[in-house]
UniProtKB/TrEMBL annotation:
It comes from Sphingomonas cremea. It is found in: Cytoplasm. It comes from the Bacteria. One of its GO terms (biological process) is positive regulation of DNA-templated transcription. It holds the Pfam family Response_reg. This is Response regulator transcription factor.
Amino acid sequence: MSYVIALVDDDRNILTSVSIALQAEGFLTRVYTDGQTALKAFIDNPPDLGVFDIKMPQMDGMELLRRVREMGGPAGTMPVIFLTSKDDELDEALGLAMGADDYISKPFSQRLLIARIRALLRRQDLARGTGAAATDNGDEELPLIDRGRLVMDPARHKVLWDRKDVTLTVTEFLILEALAQRPGVVKSRNQLLDIAYQDDVYVDDRTIDSHIKRIRRKFRGVDPEFDAIETLYGVGYRFGEE
């Protein structure tokens, strides 16, 4: 299977060089020089993963991501990597808060970008129960995680809270899954990083805090009283026992 990667950046040199590098690795690429054009294309033909520059004219990467997440369906949950200005922590924090799965600062190594793309696609396959990561037996369904009010279906990347759909990104799904598999057991930030970022790619442990905040916010969208994810300050997080 050849994955389709959408590259959205107003710098044509970056689009060309990254596209060539990805194609050499067996990916298919689509390139867009502005967010508006990309968004229109995603409606009918969503890619498997998007790489968005944040600072673009007309529609920047933040607005593009917000509109994509509102679309729902395959486009709404596709992994997204943000390209940010060097050392711009505000961009990184905002991007993660809005639903990006990862970020990488310019100037960047193409090898690093490709490694992160592969990691996200593997996590997407794992969460959806597809590809080589699905199961040892391709015909066997991945078991449901049933924690009373919470039901997770890894094979379909589906999450229900009180029978209401909650849309999570791949990274969010894997973090919640790790917590929900063993209610009451504390997972440290480093343990959650190892689960959500399974490659030798450096990610600050504050990234987990941002993901947890987004997960909570999404659940509180269907249940304002949601408090199942507990914080143990200085230790980590756990899914509360029923």
